[in-house]
């Protein structure tokens, strides 16, 4: 999508701190980290949020979770949280599917 911030980051048109990249997804450090480790994993293809996941694109999501597990092992994250906000009330501010990976501090449950 031409006017989407994360499409531009995935395409390298806007700089970001790359953590990982392959043909399907891109991972980068969050610009406003909420934990000592906080990166985002996004599909290169534009998907608005989890609410747009379907049989046609769920393979991309499965792949992203494989990548998250691989990166967590490589980074020695023994405890971490994966979050995806859907809709403004839940805290979504960028409307391109992304999974937050947070680690390195105590976290509360339920979330605020
Ligand atoms: P959301 O609020 O939609 O769940 O998450 C969006 C995340 O993107 C936020 O944590 C925010 O800090 C991050 N973010 C917003 N703009 C940029 C940017 O230009 N670069 C990077 N690296 N992260 C961004
Ligand atoms: Zn996008």
Write up this protein.
The chain is 21% helix and 22% strand. It is of the alpha+beta class and 112 residues long. The longest helix is centred in the middle third of the chain and has 17 residues, at 58-74. The chain is globular, with a radius of gyration of 14 Å. The mean pLDDT is 97. The structure holds guanosine-5'-monophosphate and zinc ion. Residues 1, 4, 6-7, 46, 96 line the site of zinc ion.
Strand order of the largest sheet: 1-2-3-5-4
> What is the helical fraction, as a range of percent?
10-25%
Q: Give the radius of gyration.
A: 14 Å
Relative strand content: 15-25%
Small molecules (ligands, ions, cofactors) in the structure: guanosine-5'-monophosphate, zinc ion
Mean pLDDT: 97
Number of strands: 5
Distance N terminus to C terminus? Answer: 31 Å
List the helices and strands and how they pair.
Layout: H1 5-10, E1 18-21, E2 25-29, E3 37-43, H2 58-74, E4 80-83, E5 99-103
Antiparallel strand pairs: 1-2, 2-3, 3-5, 4-5
Zinc ion is lined by residues 1, 4, 6-7, 46, 96.
């Amino acid at each position: 999508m031409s006017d989407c911030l994360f499409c531009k980051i995935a395409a390298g048109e806007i700089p970001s701190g790359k953590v990982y990249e392959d043909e399907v997804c891109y991972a980068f450090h969050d610009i406003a980290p909420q934990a000592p480790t906080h990166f985002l994993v996004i599909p290169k293809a534009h998907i608005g949020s989890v609410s747009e996941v379907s049989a046609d694109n769920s393979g991309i999501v499965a792949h992203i979770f494989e990548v998250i597990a691989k990166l967590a092992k490589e980074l020695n994250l023994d405890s971490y949280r994966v979050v995806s906000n859907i809709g403004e009330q839940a805290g979504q501010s960028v409307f391109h599917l992304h999974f937050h990976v947070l680690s390195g501090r105590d976290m509360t449950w339920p979330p605020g």
